[in-house]
Amino acid sequence: MLPLKSKHKLFHFIFVRRALWYKMAPPVSKVVRKIVKNEEEVAKELCTLIEKLSNEAISARGQFSVGLSGGSMGKFVCGGLPGITTTWAKWKLFFCDERLVSFTDPESTYKIYRAGLVGPTPLTEDQFVVVDPDLEVKAAAEDYEKKVQAIFPNKEWPSFDLLLLGMGPDGHTASLFPGHVALDESKAWVVGVSDSPKPPPCRVTLTLPAINHSACCVFAMAGQGKADMVKRVLGDGEDLPCSRVKPSPGQLVWILDEAAAAKL
Ligand SMILES: O=C1O[C@H](COP(=O)(O)O)[C@@H](O)[C@H](O)[C@H]1O
């Protein structure tokens, strides 16, 4: 028989500590992996998900906030979105990251989405919350952060309904590159990067905490060129910028084609 004092200690250890641990530990993201045949199927799967999430968000809150990425994501989204059924007027579009180049430069992410979505869908230019390419890096990041804050007023962190993310061959996502100081930002929603290892060097990016407060993050990719990094991130769990995307509480979705998933 345990003495009363020891019983109290045991009770404290088991119940109080456990309750505290549950309270403090961040809820784990719900992770979904979807492997489809080819690039075309990746775009289809992605756009079906965007359609579903937009309609759910609009029914629940009257607005859908989505963050876009550059690179191959533009192709998937611009190819598939014109075919979906949604209330376009309720959309607000942001950029997970943007390259600091003019809107006419082929490297501009906004240029790609404006050409692919304004016209082919009922979306209008004023529904895009853009990074001002005429400002220098720090000022552009501060200006973009203010624009995002105006959409999520009085919030500690933005709560995007959906962020569409890509993964570079070095495991970067948005403009968060391996080993870069921007990865450790814990207060700002947005930071500037003036030494991006991938050109162009000047960029503006959402930070990891801003990304991880969104309701859903989706990585979509296709092709054998992604296979090694997919294995390092999803198979080996290596600590890379992509692996740190854990929306909490939230959903993390990976949509891959068979070639990108080949080494898993
Ligand atoms: O530079 C960038 O690269 C990543 C990955 O691009 P991908 O073409 O390999 O898919 C992209 O997600 C990011 O937005 C972009 O600025």
Automatic annotation (TrEMBL):
Signal sequence residues = none
Q: What class of enzyme is it?
A: hydrolase
**What GO biological process terms does the UniProt entry carry, in alphabetical order?**
carbohydrate metabolic process; pentose-phosphate shunt
Cite the entry's keywords alphabetically.
Hydrolase
Q: Which Pfam families does the record match to this protein?
A: Glucosamine_iso
Pathway as given in its UniProt record: Carbohydrate degradation; pentose phosphate pathway; D-ribulose 5-phosphate from D-glucose 6-phosphate (oxidative stage): step 2/3
- UniProt EC number: 3.1.1.31
What's an example of a GO molecular-function annotation for this chain? Answer: 6-phosphogluconolactonase activity
Q: Where is the Glucosamine/galactosamine-6-phosphate isomerase domain?
A: 38-254
Q: Which reaction does it catalyse?
A: 6-phospho-D-glucono-1,5-lactone + H2O = 6-phospho-D-gluconate + H(+)
State the protein's purpose.
Answer: Hydrolysis of 6-phosphogluconolactone to 6-phosphogluconate.
Q: Which NCBIfam families does UniProt cross-reference here?
A: pgl
Write out the similarity annotation.
Answer: Belongs to the glucosamine/galactosamine-6-phosphate isomerase family. 6-phosphogluconolactonase subfamily.
Question: What name does UniProt use for this protein?
Answer: 6-phosphogluconolactonase
The species this protein belongs to is Petrolisthes cinctipes
Q: What is the lineage of its organism?
A: Eukaryota, Metazoa, Ecdysozoa, Arthropoda, Crustacea
